[in-house]
Amino acid sequence: MNDGAFGIGTASPRVEDARLLQGRGRYAADVALPGQAYLYVLRSPHAHATLGTIDSAAARAAPGVLAVLTGAEVAADGLGSLPANTGRHRADGSPTPVPPRPLLAQGTVRHIGDPVAAVVAESLAQAIDAAELIEIDYTPLPAVTTAAAARAAG
Q1: What does the alpha-carbon distance between residue 41 and residue 113 come to, in Å, rounded to a whole number?
Q2: What is the pLDDT of residues 18-58, one digit of tens each?
Q3: Nearest to 54 by CA among 126, 92, 108, 6
């Protein structure tokens, strides 16, 4: 049961602001290790669409590319999905639904920015350049864009 102390929508104090505002933050992009590889995630430009073919052959052949993954490959390799925020409850005490969260979209993208493919390369620039070579066949679908449309959709 949610006692309200840490529920969804509950304000929580931000303790990191002073450090970040003073330029003392440390980010993953600040780290450079010998032999380090870089990941770039190609994301959907569509709010809702079916995924057709994903042609990553040119990206795989690009300079410095170590790997290219799509949702189908992630599923075939049995890599699982992203952990969901489990253990939360609704105000009535019932558990909140836990939607699937695949590492990369499989069959359908459900929001703008949904991860569709991942490129690992020797440099970030090479990963980005290779990702731009991936050709994806999207078929846009209707998307909910307002609160009224969401309520109507059920």
Answers
A1: 10
A2: 888 888 888 888 888 999 999 999 999 999 999 999 999 99
A3: 108
